[in-house]
């Protein structure tokens, strides 16, 4: 099959054939045949489509496909492959001219890129994407992941300084309505302890396990 494919001269005809092959593979990957694991077909299809021109594969569609490949890699624990697919998805989205026009997808993708780059030790790149989200996201909830990793990236890298990370973390808490003194004084500890005892009303601390899940998104994220 590879020899037959290579007999076709490079150009539009070859690209169109590759596109048709990719669509067949996509259909195979999405089939309801549960007896066979056809994930490989999706990987191969997206790999083929990455080599095609924007006229045959819109860049936004290709970005979403690479994002899906990244999710599949993450589920398998293939962090390096996931990182490569996430960066490809981000590049295709930028090429499409739809970055931040596709707001929810852009935010979701960048949050994953930030997390991935940080886990790979690429702190400067993670910080760059953090700033992108903080400049363009429209709500505190949407900025939470970026604020979290801004704190973490400032504390990491060659000039590791956890004090800077602590200060940034305290600023983030204040943005979400929770203020701590820095450094905490003994009076602050006593005050918090008394407030906790009053809230518990002589019950053991374990009663907190019986509280219903937090529904307010900001509270949930801070917890």
Could you characterize what this model shows?
Helix 2 runs antiparallel to helix 3 (39-49), helix 3 runs antiparallel to helix 4 (59-76) and helix 6 packs parallel to helix 8. This protein has 223 residues and is mainly α. Helix content is 68%, strand content 0%. The protein is elongated and about 80 Å long.
Helix-strand layout with pairing:
Layout: H1 2-6, H2 12-29, H3 39-49, H4 59-76, H5 79-96, H6 103-119, H7 123-136, H8 140-155, H9 162-175, H10 186-200, H11 217-222
Helix pairs in contact: 2-3, 3-4, 4-5, 5-6, 6-7, 6-8, 7-8, 8-9
How many strand segments?
Answer: 0
* Estimated structural class: mainly alpha
Rg from C-alpha positions?
A: 24 Å
Helix content: 55-70%
Q: Please mark out the parts with pLDDT under 50 across 5 or more consecutive residues, or reply none.
A: none
Quick check: average pLDDT?
86
Task: Quickly list its features.
11 helices, 223 residues, mainly alpha, elongated
What is this structure, in a nutshell?
The protein has helices spanning 2-6, 12-29, 39-49, 59-76, 79-96, 103-119, 123-136, 140-155, 162-175, 186-200, 217-222. The protein is an all-alpha fold.
């Amino acid at each position: 099959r590879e020899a037959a494919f290579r007999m076709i001269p490079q150009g539009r005809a070859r690209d169109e054939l590759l596109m048709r092959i990719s669509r067949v593979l996509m259909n195979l990957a999405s089939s309801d045949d549960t007896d066979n694991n056809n994930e490989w077909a999706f990987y191969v299809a997206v790999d083929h489509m990455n080599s095609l021109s924007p006229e045959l594969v819109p860049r936004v569609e290709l970005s979403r496909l690479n994002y899906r490949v990244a999710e599949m890699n993450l589920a398998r624990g293939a962090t390096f492959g996931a990182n490569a697919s996430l960066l490809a998805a981000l590049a295709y989205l930028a090429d499409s001219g739809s970055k931040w026009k596709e707001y929810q997808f852009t935010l979701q993708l960048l949050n994953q890129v930030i997390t991935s780059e940080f886990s790979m030790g690429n702190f400067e790149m993670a910080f760059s994407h953090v700033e992108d989200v903080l400049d363009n996201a429209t709500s505190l909830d949407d900025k939470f992941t970026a604020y979290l990793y801004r704190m973490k990236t400032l504390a990491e890298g060659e000039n590791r300084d956890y004090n800077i990370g602590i200060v940034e973390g305290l600023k983030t808490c204040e943005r979400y309505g929770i203020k701590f003194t820095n450094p905490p004084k003994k009076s602050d500890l006593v005050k918090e302890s008394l407030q906790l005892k009053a809230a518990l009303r002589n019950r053991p601390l374990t009663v907190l396990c019986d509280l219903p899940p937090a529904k307010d998104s900001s509270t949930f994220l801070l917890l």
